[in-house]
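# nightly structure sweep
# worker-07 picked up a monomer target from the shared queue
# config: single-sequence mode, recycle default, output format = structure tokens
# input follows
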Amino acid sequence: MAPSSPTKLPSNPLNHLRPVDDEDFVEIYDDSYSSDDEDNRRSKERRIREKAPKSEHEILDLEKKPRLPSSIEIYNRIKWDCTDVDIDEFSIIYEDRILGLVEVIFSKYEIGTIPLHRVKTFKYQNNIIWDRKTRFIAFPEL
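# output follows
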């Protein structure tokens, strides 16, 4: 099959358009529209704009929470900054797909095998020092 020749475009592609006169427009009147519909629309807009003031509890929830260090930051802090204490006093609770929550001693945790995004809690001497769910951090100054 031979390639088709390209279609020649007009020099001014807008030549087919013509100016529009007012008589070309037809005004459509919808008799189902009434002032009641407009009043309902306005009252709905007013209700949306005039919401009740928020309670103290809601305002506190909207305030920005302080940044929670990530699990990799806590892991590295324990690994590199806590050289004066026994590393085995730290434990990690992570979520296993099959077993659920599993607690392991820090030195037994395999960072390559178990991803850090599954870590839920870090403990030191059976005291929680970091918890993802409650956004709790109380890292001891060692």
